[in-house]
Amino acid sequence: MASSDSPPAVDETEPKPGPEAKPVHVGVKTVWRESPTAVKSLLVGTAVNRLGGFIQVFMVLYMTQRGFSATEAGLALGVYGAGTVLGVLTGGWMSDRVGPRLTIMSTLVSSAVLLPAVLYLDSYPAILAIIGVGGALSQAYRPASTSMISQLIPAERQVMIFAMVRLAINLGTTAAPLLGAALVQVSWDFLFWGEAAAILVFATVAGVTLPRHQAAETAGHEGTTDAPGAGGAGRKPSYRAVLTDGRYLLFLLAMFVSSVIYIQYVSTLPLTVKHLGLNTGVYAAMVALNGALVITCELLIAKVVQRWPARIAVIAGVALTGIGMSLYALPWGITALVIATLVWSLGEIVGYPTLFFAYPAQAGPPELRGRYLGASNSLYGLGTAVGPFLGVMLWNRFGDGLWLGCGALGLLAVGAAWLGVRPVGAADRTPPRKGPDSGAGSAEDLGAQTTVAT
C-alpha cells in the first residue's frame, strides 16, 4: 500500500499533452476521393447546371429574333442580371432560415418550371417579369451550395474543393455556348427547355444526395446571436448583422472593385484589340488563353495556395488582377495582350477560390453563413453588371487610361482586402495554449473555432 507521501500514480493510458496537430493539406485526388457524396454531387450538379446555362448567353439574340428591338433585348438581359443579384441575397437568407438542402431544391425546381413560360408570352412586361424572377430563382442556390460544401469539408481543404467548384463552373460555362448554338439550329425553344432540363437534373441529384440533417442543423441556428461581427449580443440574425461587420464590408469593397476590374476583359478588351488594328480572332485567342490556364492550372496551384493565410491569397489575387489589366496599356501590341492576359489569369487562379468561396464561407458565425455568402455573391454580380458600363464609358473618354485606372483601382482593392480579411481557417489560426483546466473539446467545438473575430 502506497504511503500518503508517495506521488500519485500516473495513468499510462491517458494521452500526454503535446503540440496540437497541424492541418494536413492533401492533393487533388485525395480531396476528391475523401469528400462526402453530397459534395461530389454538388460539383457534378453545378457542372450540369452551367452546361445548360443557355438563356443568359443567348438572351439578346432570342429577343431580337422574336421581333423585339435591340434596346428591349438589352433591357431584358439587364433585368435577368438584376434578378440574379437579388436571387443570391434571397438564397443566402433562405439558406440560413430553412437550410441549404431545401433552398437548393426549391429554388431550382421553381426556376425550371417558370423559365419556359417565356416561350408562351407575347407581352413584353410579362416577359421581363418572368425573366427577372426566373433569373433570381436560378441563381439563389449558389450561397446555399457553398454553405453546404463549407459545412461538410474541413477548413484546410476548402481552397482545393472550391477550386474544383470553379473548374466545374468553367467547364460548363465554356461548353454551354457551343451546345446552345447547336440547339438553336433545331429550335430556339430548346434553349429554354434545355436549361430547364439541366436545372431539374441538378435538383434531382441534390434531393437524393444532400443530407437532411444538415438543413435542420443550419435552421437551428436561426435564433439570436452574440457572435463577434454579427451585430451585437442577442440580435436576431439578419442582413443588418452582416452590415455591422465593418471588416467584412471592407472585404466586400475589395470584391466589388476586383469584379469591376475583372469584367473589363469582356467589355473593354475587345475595344482595345480593335483599336490596335487586330481582328476578333486575337480577342478570342486571349479569352481562350485565360480559359485554358484556369482549367488546366487552377487545381495544381491550389495545392500551394491552400497553405496560405486567406488574407495573402485574396491580396495576391486582387493585386495580380489589377496589375494584369493595367499591362494592356503597354505599347507592345499583341505581346502586351499576351503578357497582360497571363498576369491577370494568374490572379484569378491564385485568389478567386478564396475570394469568392472559401473566405466568405468562414468569415462570419455559422448562423449567418448563408447571408455572408449571399452578400459576397451579390457584390460580385453588381460589379460585373456596372463594370462594363463604366469601362466602356471611360475607354471612350480616356482610351488606354482606362487600363491604368484598373491598376489604381487594384491598389484600392488590395488596401481594402488587407484591412478587411480577418484570420480564418486552418492556415490562419494560432493553436491555443492549453492550460490545466482546458479540455480537448469535441469536433463540433473545434469546427466552431474556424472563425476568429477581432
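That was protein one. Protein two is written in the same sequence-then-structure order:
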Amino acid sequence: MSSLIDGKPGEKLRIGRIGLLGRQRRRLLEMGLLPGTAITVAGVGAFGGRIVRIGDARIAVDAGTARSIGVRRESARE
C-alpha cells in the first residue's frame, strides 16, 4: 500500500488506512476521509500537500498528513 503523497493529479485512489491518532484522525474522519472511501487527487500544493476530491468536495491535506494516509490505486474498470 502506498501513501496519498505518492498520488498524482487525476489519479483515482481508495483510502486503506489512516495512520494518525487523536484529534488529527478524528478531523479527517469528520471531513469524509474514511477507510474504503474513493478519492481523486485534484492537485498538488506548493509545499507537496495534496488536494483531494470526494464527490463534489475538495479537501487540502498537508504533506505530513498525506504521508500518513495509506491508499490503493483503483483499477481501470472501476
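The CA atoms of residues 18 and 72 lie 12 Å apart. Keep this in mind for the problem set.
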